[in-house]
Amino acid sequence: KGLVYEGRKVLMYCPRCETPLSNFEVAMDNSYKDVTEETVIAKFKIKDIGHRTSDIGNDVYILAWTTTPWTLPGNVALAVGEGIEYAAIEAGEGNKKETFILAEPRLGILDMPHAVLGMMKGKELVGVEYEPLFSIDAFTHGSAKDVAYKVYPADFVTTTDGTGVVHTAVMYGEDDYKLGKKLGLPEVHTVNEQGMFVEGVP
C-alpha cells in the first residue's frame, strides 16, 4: 500500500563504533562539553556573475563558511538568504587584491583592507554557477550536472556567524539534506563508515 519506504535520515554518528548514536545517548547528562574547533572560510570562484551586479570584474569569489571542513569535498551547492544584503568587495593589498562576495553584516570578519564595490540582495545571487573545489565524477554525471555547483536560497542562512553563505554538502547535515532533497541535488557519500575519505575523493 506504499506505507513502508526506504530512505535516509541524518543522525549523530560515531565513526569509531561505526554506528549511529541514539537520541537518549546524545541527551544524557554530561554528554556535552564546550570545545574549540577550527572553522574554515572557503572561496568559490564564480563562473559568470552576469547581470546580477555592477561592474565588479571577472575573477569573483563567493566566501562560504563551514564548521566541518572535512565535508568540503562533498560540496554541491551554496546557500544564501534571499533577503540578506550581500557586498562585493575588493580585498587585499597591491597586486594581491581579490574580489569577494559575502553578507554585508559580516564584513567585520575580514582581517585585511577592503573596499565595497557593489551591493546586491541574496535573491540576485540565486542561480549563479561556481567552480567546484574538488573534481568528483559523481557530482557531474547525469541529472547532477544540471543542479550541482549553483547558489540556492535557504531559510536557515543567517548573518550571526560566518559569511552569510552556507557551504552545502547534502549527506552531512540535516539542513543540507532537506535542501538537497528539495532541489534534487546528488546524494553521494565522500566518507565511509570509519570517517575516511572514499575512493574517488581527491
Tell me the radius of gyration: 18 Å
Class from helix and strand fractions: alpha+beta
Order the strands across the largest sheet as they lie in space: 3-4-7-6-8
**Which spans of ≥5 residues are poorly predicted at pLDDT below 50?**
none
Major sheet characteristics: 5 strands, mixed
Alpha plus pi helix count? 4
Portion in strands: 15-25%
Number of strands: 10
Shape, per Cα inertia axes: globular
Tell me the helix content.
Answer: 10-25%
pLDDT averaged residue by residue: 89
What order do the helices and strands follow?
EEHEEEEEEHHEEH
Termini Cα gap: 43 Å
Helix and strand topology:
Blueprint: E1 13-14, E2 19-20, H1 23-27, E3 40-45, E4 60-66, E5 77-80, E6 85-91, E7 98-103, E8 114-121, H2 122-125, H3 144-147, E9 150-153, E10 165-168, H4 174-183
Parallel strand pairs: 4-7, 5-9
Antiparallel strand pairs: 1-2, 3-4, 5-10, 6-7, 6-8
What can you see in these coordinates?
- This protein has a five-stranded mixed beta sheet. The chain has a three-stranded mixed beta sheet with strand order 9-5-10.
- It has four helices and ten strands.
- 11% of the residues lie in helices and 25% in strands.
- With 202 residues, the chain is α+β, with helices and mostly antiparallel strands.
